[in-house]
Amino acid sequence: MEINTFLRNFADILDDTDAALITQETVFRDLDEWNSLTALSLIAMADEEYDVKLTGDDIKSSNSLNDIFEIIKNKG
């Protein structure tokens, strides 16, 4: 699993955020677009793209997109 692919997949679930602003260090909760629907979209993306069951606790315990990436990589 590549971080750049993950970042592209994450950017795809956002409607209004420029994909160029999405990096490993992005604090996803700081994005204007971040809300509970986006969190559910992230969980669905992890399931569809990586066959990983991401939980709400996984998201709560994460700060950056790299944190989410590492969780998905370790569960995969």
Automatic annotation (TrEMBL):
It comes from the Bacteria. Residues 1-76 form the Carrier domain. Gene3D superfamilies: ACP-like. Pfam families: PP-binding. This is Carrier domain-containing protein. It comes from Flavobacterium bizetiae.
